[in-house]
């Protein structure tokens, strides 16, 4: 699945990283404990988190995640957006909650 498809056809908007939306998503991970994500997340995962501080960018960059997805239209801190732009990390926003994001990804063929 390509990030661009989520943006073009579904309820996802780009917060940061517009130039990188051709990245592929190979998995999906949901967790808000950063140390847990660092030990269990996988390269090319899309990561769902309600965290919006700059440390999420560091984790995403370290693991080479496809993107960060912020659910429920939670506002992302401006400092985080700026850091994501510097680090080439895509942040997406959606009004969907985490469960509905998983359902949507399943419908789109992500297993």
Automatic annotation (TrEMBL):
Residues 13-102 form the DRTGG domain. InterPro entries: DRTGG, Ser_kin/Pase_Hpr-like_N_sf. Coiled coil: none annotated. It holds the Pfam family DRTGG. It comes from the Bacteria. SUPFAM superfamilies: HprK N-terminal domain-like. This is DRTGG domain-containing protein.
